[in-house]
């Protein structure tokens, strides 16, 4: 049987290409439920306080927001930042499988 592939290398190449194409089509047909959630759910909270410095923004907006969000069920960790342009962001990362709504 292997002698056929040795004597006909073009036949062997065509068979290999057909097998690769069938594998590619099979991968595209797999349902997404077969793949796990890789990235955890993430919620971004943005706040704007025009004209405020980063320190004022942190004390008057970020700290109260962080205290309100802290302890939400399924929360893994929270990060925040404030810039001198009067904008702040809070990023809340939840455990896998947690509904971020």
From TrEMBL:
UniProt name for this protein: Hydrophobe/amphiphile efflux-1 family RND transporter
The record's annotation in InterPro entries points to: Acrflvin-R (IPR001036)
Signal peptide span per the entry? Answer: none
Enumerate the Pfam families for this protein: ACR_tran
């Amino acid at each position: 049987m292997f002698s056929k592939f040795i004597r006909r290398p073009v036949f062997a190449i065509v068979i290999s290409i057909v097998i690769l194409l069938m594998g590619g089509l099979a991968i595209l047909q797999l349902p997404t439920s077969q793949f796990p959630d890789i990235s955890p759910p993430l919620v971004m909270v943005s706040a704007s306080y025009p004209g405020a410095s980063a320190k004022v923004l942190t004390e008057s907006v970020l700290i109260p927001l962080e205290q309100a969000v802290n302890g939400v069920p399924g929360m893994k960790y929270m990060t925040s930042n404030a810039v001198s342009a009067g904008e702040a962001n809070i990023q809340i990362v939840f455990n896998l499988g947690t509904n971020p709504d």
